[in-house]
Amino acid sequence: MIPLIVALVVVALYLVGFYNGLKTIQVQIAASIQEIGNQLKRQAELIPNLADSVKGYLKHEKSIFADLTAARKLIDQALTSKSPQSIDKAQTSLNKAIKSIQVVVESNPQIKGSEVVANLMNELRDTADKVMYSRRTFIDLSADFNVKITTVPGVWLAGLLGFKPEKGLATPATGEHLEVSASETTPPKISL
Amino acid sequence: MINVYEQVSTNKTKSAVIISLFIGFVIAATWIITTILDLDPSLILFASLFSFASSVTSFYFGDRIVLSLNGARPANRQEFFDFYTATENLAMANRLPPPKIYVIDSPSPNAFATGRDPQHAVVCATTGLLQKLNRSQLEAVIAHELSHIANFDTRLMTLVSVLVGSLSILSDLLLRQRRYSSNDDRRHNSGPLMVVGLILLVLSPLIAQLIQLAISRRREFLADASAVKTTRQPASLIEALEIISTDSSKANFASPATAPLYITNPFRHQKLASLFSTHPPISERVAALKSML
Which range has the top average pLDDT, A27-41, B196-210, B253-267? Predict the structure, then answer.
């Protein structure tokens, strides 16, 4: 009788631990999605200010400011919906604006040297890093969660307790980004 | 290979053991000396108070002591943009509260972390490091330090360095008495204290051995590996380690007691110090990282 009770208690404790562990990760995942949104919002608010500081250099690039406004709208939508997929879409749009700023700066040697622009490039890199690391947190947490509910013994219990795999960020499972072309396998040559 | 959670609990246990050993050692040493030399037994009470006080101090103020011993000053975002922001970002990636950020004005590139837990953590780099590394190499070094914080290595290492430091200062002070006393009368008075100093001096290789046991070299490999897990760029850490280890500028900020805290041994140019080194050779660390490329 006593061994049976002990066994039941052990199983019950394991179940509680398993359930709480998964719930904890779920809360962390929700928080990490908010963090991505938070970083995107910071980025969206920062970049127009930075772009303003170099406005003199960018005055022929009206499209950059249009892109930035569009991206901010998408970010606001993503923040209300809180879905990782719409956050991802907003980020793609913001990246487009950042890229065009970078292209303008890179192609003008005389503005590249100025301190304001150097500061702009530093901030751009940092804000991109912040978004990247907040996405990585989300990716890592989702992976942890999915490993727990798809491996033995979790896989037997996850269904019973109603846990479903996390979808993670929307990256298509097939497509160009997974294929390596022959030209990409050769190391890039840079002539200075 | 032990995982991070086991590493955290071993570090907490070892920290408690180090404190108990330290208190035990000081009290036992005083007891033996007072019995042999037939001194006032109230010295034992004094020793217990001293050892308790220094344990509490090194636990709660160890980080500040280490920072001021190394001459560190707080870093601001404007002056050290890359250092400040990279630390902020990596702390977020490791799900740690943002640590305080300090710099040491020295051309010798090196970095360390301290603090009793992630809520009271400090990351400190020399200005040489910040000048000589690019941003991704710097990120690799900071990620290495942050994993020491997450693993509670900083608690153990700070405790050890402050406690050992206090012992070596004590032994130094007691031995120095002899140099300043010229006449027989004063030498007679400082006799018992000198004996204590000599005992501490004789015991120091033993203490060094103890530190070796506490600070297993494996934690550097573990921190390197976690750094790579955060940055996903083993090449940057390899480059950073190579830049740090081939640099010839003199490290005038560190003392033997604080040396184990640094990412690479600040005294690697000296033969005797490398004998007691708590760091594995850079070549071994680089080899381990190259297998991740």
Answer: A27-41
- Collect all residues of chain B within an 8 Å Cβ-Cβ radius of residue A134: 92-93
* CA distance linking residue B20 with residue B210, whole number of Å: 13
Of A125, A126, A133, the CB nearest to B93: A133
pLDDT digits (tens, 9 = 90+) for B108-140: 899 999 999 999 999 999 999 999 999 999 999
* Both structure tokens of A107: 């192609």
The predicted-structure confidence for B78-109, as pLDDT tens digits, reads as follows 899 999 999 999 998 888 999 999 999 999 89
Instruction: Supply the ipTM of this predicted assembly.
Output: 0.71
* pLDDT, averaged across chain B: 81
Rounded Cα–Cα distance for residues B232 and A82 (Å): 27
B265: burial class by Cβ within 10 Å (0-12, 13-18, 19+)? buried
The answer to whether B112 and B145 are in contact (CB under 8 A) is yes
Inspect the interface and report whether the beta carbons of A133 and B95 lie closer than 8 Å. no
Q: What residue has token string 């989300």?
A: A138
- Does the bond joining A153 to the residue before it have cis omega, within 30 degrees of 0? yes
The residue with tokens 């390197």 is B224
Using alpha carbons, select from A60, A67, A125 the residue that is nearest to residue A117: A125
Contact B92 A122 (CB under 8 A): no
Backbone phi and psi for residue B101, each to the nearest 5 degrees, phi listed first: -120, 125
Distance from C-alpha of B130 to C-alpha of B110, rounded to nearest angstrom: 9
For residue B100, the SS3 value is strand
Residue of A33, A46, A129 to mutate for B, most B C-beta atoms under 10 A: A129
- Interhelix angle B218-231/B282-290, nearest 10 degrees: 40
**What residue spans of chain A are helical by DSSP H?**
2-53, 55-58, 62-81, 84-107, 109-112, 115-150, 154-161, 182-185
